């Protein structure tokens, strides 16, 4: 009885914390670089279609109806019918080449560096020289000649008539003396909706669909609606039209004064709960994404399935349940995929977890896998300035559920990031301890405030207002363990599992 009383008390405290934290939460749009992809989503967000074949975007890509395995569509671009990693490769005339620099660009089928060469026409590469520019397929010295359109580009002496007419135009387009022609570098954080970039001040993205933004316009799954619309109700991401007045969405079910049904198919009795299109008794059953299961089979949902957390051969990875009975060796989650061997690596951030084939001199930077000769990484941010001797994080942050039950034997705490300050190469984090309990002694820390100093570039980014799982190492220094936690679900599961194990 004491165990369940303790759990109830913990849950009560955490629920109150979750209520206040919910007001501060910000939903991030998932980053994507899927220009040219034509895979269509069907049903679950895990399943897409590429032609007539289903695939998962977390581990494969679809280009012109062909699937590329081993590279997630979330971080890839298409080169014809093959996907490639634009961080480390470049597509020139349908051929995938290994980048020699972040300043590499295509000139026809060849690659060149914008810092040392210029591309004239479609496929002619010349070494960059001061005061030289392109004129069609050639270069010319701007101090002696000009480029005239007659009607095709042709080089003429600057004293000729056409040069005098083109003089003003050349002044507008010439490069500053001593500066090589450059191009803007790709910004990895561009807001993308589906395969299009968009301006959030003018447009809004609803699950890959763009709509005109306004103060009254809201998203409901992939649809948009305005608050002034009559007889419209958004219920669990599904937009319902022509619903009766005074209808309400409660727990994914539309309740109306005279007629309440479970997904328009079953009428629940007074006090009964809906689970998909059927009713269920929450005392004996559990509802997982619209599917009812007997509680004897488990108390936790994994997608639409239920599982027993005591069963060491079952592992839940972001809503996908895996049976480990026939696997040899240790397996861990990488998003909704299962990482089983050392030939692959999982790179993760708070928004994505992506699996890659391991390559020499490549490291993770958040959910990106980069070539250290091209890029450097600082606090999960890529920079086109390689630093071979720079430090890198020796571990990746994991979802809290992936850390259970190994955390049950440790003293861990949930720390909310209140503020962050930068000084030289150090990041100073002010933490407010939301809850700290040693599962063995149940000793609660007295001082709720902690000051943590981290090497800025070698540690993952931490966001103000987000709560993370931390552990104090043998030196008493807090170590960051998890991605931002869900105060209403993940933390409850940690306490439930650990207190049961203790009991």
Automatic annotation (TrEMBL):
Q: Which domain of life is it from?
A: Eukaryota
Q: Which InterPro entries match?
A: Galaxin-like, Galaxin_dom
Q: Which Pfam families does the record cross-reference, listed alphabetically?
A: Galaxin_repeat
Q: Which residues form the Galaxin-like repeats domain?
A: 50-167, 264-379
Q: What name has this protein been given in UniProt?
A: Galaxin-like isoform X2
Query: Which species is this UniProt entry from?
Result: Cyprinus carpio (Common carp)
Report which gene this protein is encoded by: LOC109055225
